[in-house]
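Input sequence (220 aa), recorded before submission:
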Amino acid sequence: MLKDGEKGVIRQRGKDDITYAIAPHVPCGVVKPDQLRTLADVADKYQVSELKITSAARIAIIGLKEDQVDGVWEDLGMDPGHAVGLCVRSIKVCPGIQYCRLAKQDSLEMGMELDRRYHGMVLPSKMKMGVSGCKIQCAENCIKDISLYGTPKGWAVMIGGNGSALPRLADLLVEDLSREKALDMVVRIIDYYKENSKRERMGRMIERMGLDKVKADLLG
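Predicted structure, token format:
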């Protein structure tokens, strides 16, 4: 029996008939037509009846047997997405200024950069990130550990949001940063989190330490 994360699998419900899902990495939810064709062809080959578009904008192939997993990955030729484990999960991103008339900043470009830097990075607890092109925050910034949204003057950075059984809305840390300063702030936040977290989500760390202290340490 494979464990969650082993060979990129996610165990599904069931005791007697154990099946698995895999979720190839689709950076920022942007997928090319040939990748969709490959996913469909592989699903047909292994007689998968359905695929699931996940909340993190991945495309999961579900209902696989253990002896199918290696072959599916080989046929896909795609990297596994980090859907489980204590690490940075897929970056959730809105269409941004490239496609949305309301956007103020290029969320897709920023999200792709964060994905290149952090996707799969091992941390004290799981971490979710989001990037939105404007303050409407279609990437659900309010429930992300670290998130950015575009303003007319640059980027705002939020920290400490999460869904989970004990949901917490994110706190605004700083506004109107340039692209480079926003990326530098994310570096600072992650380093601070590594040093101060006690195997807890960002929001729980903030509650334990106090928002004023965390802000002073990060912005000082």
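Checked by second reader. The first strand starts at residue 9 and ends at 11.
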